[in-house]
Amino acid sequence: NAGVTQTPKFQVLKTGQSMTLQCAQDMNHEYMSWYRQDPGMGLRLIHYSVGAGITDQGEVPNGYNVSRSTTEDFPLRLLSAAPSQTSVYFCASSYSEVRYEQYFGPGTRLTVT
Amino acid sequence: AQSVTQPDIHITVSEGASLELRCNYSYGATPYLFWYVQSPGQGLQLLLKYFSGDTLVQGIKGFEAEFKRSQSSFNLRKPSVHWSDAAEYFCAVATGGGADGLTFGKGTHLIIQP
After folding, report:
1. Which of A75, A91, B9, B62 is the most exposed place for a label (fewest CB within 10 A)?
2. Nearest C-alpha of chain B: how many angstroms from A41?
3. Closest CA relative to residue A4, chosen from B94, B103, B91, B43
4. Mean pLDDT of each 10-residue bin along chain A, 113 residues long
5. Distance, in angstroms, between A25 CA and closest chain B CA?
């Protein structure tokens, strides 16, 4: 198993540009989520999904969209990037029965100039 | 809403010495409790978890943690640290039932002195 994979590893955007951070898992996990990590802030939940076709907002959803068309993939979209979205983004997944035993991807470091 | 406090931003420990990282949570009932480790440039790895039962839980890499309900704490311990333990450590809580993920503390950066 590859586990949770994220692409790209690094990305630089200009303010106003859009992009999609990719996340995929091959463990047949129902639950997937996106976090952002900022210095001194720990990780904060952006969006999550309990299964294909179902998504919901976390603690800091503004400026981000998600969709879940398949069990494997959970992309995170930035429609109009802002400098405040400079961060490291982590995707995580787990089985619904043990929802909180989350497996994390390696992260995407995003810089918005 | 639940919250997690890790009072120590940085901790420096000599190699071979014992380690204790502190974690306090705020929640009305007993939450699910976790410790994660993040090595530089890496994702997070689950060290151990507490759901119920025995309050002393064993994890990977020789770590253990003790849940103390009276103190709302879940401190992480290791009897003898190795240089490879240098990393960022995060305590996290989940309150069960809902699907709203984990609430993380701000992390403790562990430095190992030779």
Report:
1. B9
2. 5
3. B43
4. 91 97 96 92 90 92 96 97 97 83 92 97
5. 14
